[in-house]
Amino acid sequence: MTTRKKRRAKVEAHLWQPDLDAFKEQLDEFLGVFAKHTRPVAAVIPPELFKKMLFLCHPDKHNDHPWAGEVTQWLLEQRKKHV
């Protein structure tokens, strides 16, 4: 790119900057509104698979490891929310 073209591109970019900034603000506002009105999609776990998951992660199977207890508790909470 020649020096003249570079200079021209800089001027054009400078002229478009206010429009670009306004667009970014509008996009941020839209994404904020969108995030407020949407929620994550909950996966549906088939009951038989859920039972196997509890069996596999239960603290009794892992010498009462804290992670096993945490995951088991989370699974049970999910079951309460979605059943």
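Second entry:
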Amino acid sequence: MRQIFRRILLRAGLPHLRLHDLRHSHATLMLMSGVHPKVVQERQGHSGIAITLDTYSHVLLGLPEAAVRRLDGFLAFKLDQMQNVGKMSATGAATDSEPDGNRTHDTRIKSPLLYP
């Protein structure tokens, strides 16, 4: 298998790589693109997520900051949406995106912060 892979690399004009290097790159790129570590663990065939997280923790260093940015964007969107719904309700206009009473369109979300 290694010899066939080396020939493919030579013909393509690519530098020497091991198949294991491609495996590591695959996992790294998935994590960097936001794929959940559990999915990466399953694709890599690791017996537990701890192995994946220990091996690729260097990739996840910026994850907390990215999560905060995503949450900030989501909350800003919801605040804007709430303000727009309030303006529409004051004028008597209803929209399809406006929740009916205390129910939301997404039954998993019950937060009065998100849907007053």
